[in-house]
Amino acid sequence: MAPRFDFHTHTAYLKCANGTMTISAILAECARVGVTRLGITDHLNTLDKLPLHECIRRDLEGTQCPMDVYFGVELNYLSRDGFFAFNAETKEKAGFQFAIGGIHATYIEQYDLRQIVDIQHRHHLKTCQDPLVDVLVHPYWFARSEFSKRGWPWFDSIKAVPESYARELGQVARETGTAIEINVEANLCNGANPPRYAEEYGDYLAAVAAEGCLFSVGSDAHDIRHLAHIEAAWNMVARLGLAPERIWAPSDKPFRPAGQA
User: Fold this and answer.
1) Considering the entire predicted model, what is its pTM?
2) What average pLDDT does the chain have?
3) Does the CA dihedral 205-36-100-8 come out positive or negative?
4) For the purposes of burial, counting CB atoms within 10 Å of the CB of 6, is it exposed (0-12), middle (13-18) or buried (19 or more)?
5) What are the boundaries of each domain within the chain?
6) Which of 68, 96, 184, 215 is geometrically suited to a Cys-Cys bond with 254, CB 3.0 to 4.6 A?
7) Which residues of the chain have pLDDT under 50?
8) Which residue in 209, 197, 211 sits closest to 237, CA to CA?
9) pLDDT by residue (tens digit) across 224-254?
10) What span, in angstroms and rounded, lies between the C-alpha atoms of 102 and 104?
């Protein structure tokens, strides 16, 4: 049975998730679903957002948690071949226990599918090579709005990614100890994608997994109703035949251990 973890969730504080995603509601719903280890990982695109993460921390400190809870952060490249708004000093000052991160846009002006895939792949490898990032988030997720507003064909098949890219990602992730995320809302259950996409994405993950790297599981929930969808990631772990020791978890003690008052 796959470890019942969820290491990618958002809150109402950063306005990425909606108002249903309060700390108390997240904890209650994850307990109902059966999550045993939870990571709160809201966005830190710019350092002026750090006070909002302090609000998350404050809520966690004042709440009894039904499962082990970790205090993390999600990072995003704000420009092509740029950097994350994150460093060792920021991590220590804010008290973040782990960081997940990756590319969140195409960073091109004219449609070119090969270039889109190549830019994604380059940033995936760069993320894995960042010693402050523990998990590469949602490989080959795209915002549908970016494509729609430009009249571009939608990225509706992971088969556009060469198997050699999947293999190289798995190799680099294994060498750096970075976990590759099995993401529910961005990849496995993304309503913008056709029904066949999740099956194809499983084949892509299998090619990555063949290189022996670690994986992380995350709902990427932005609405309280989506937290239960984490079971899709747990089912994918089973489909890939991943042993429990290949499912990543933070090395620190929980920020809030289960049952701590």
Assistant:
1) 0.97
2) 96
3) positive
4) buried
5) 5-246
6) 68
7) none
8) 209
9) 999 999 999 999 999 999 999 999 999 999 9
10) 7
Please answer whether residues 43 and 32 qualify as being in contact, where contact means their C-beta atoms are separated by less than 8 angstroms. Answer: no
Between CA 5 and CA 26 the distance in angstroms is 13
Dihedral of the CA atoms 46, 47, 53, 58 (nearest 10)?
A: -170
Q: How far apart are CA 102 and CA 88, in angstroms?
A: 17
Cα 53 to Cα 90: distance, rounded to the nearest angstrom: 12
Neighbours of 8 (CB within 10 A): 29
- For 178-205, the DSSP string reads PEEEEEIIIIIT-TTS-TTHHHHHHHHH
Residues 6+ apart with CB under 8 A from 221: 6, 8, 9, 10, 17, 21, 26, 184, 185, 227, 229, 230
CATH 3.20.20.140 fits 5-246, yes or no: yes
**Taking a C-beta distance cutoff of 8 angstroms, is the pair 40, 76 a contact?**
no
Task: Please state at what angle helix 23-33 crosses helix 50-61, rounded to 10 degrees.
Answer: 60
- H or E element that contains 27: helix 23-33
Q: What is the pLDDT of residues 50-88, one digit of tens each?
A: 999 999 999 999 889 999 999 999 999 989 999 999 999
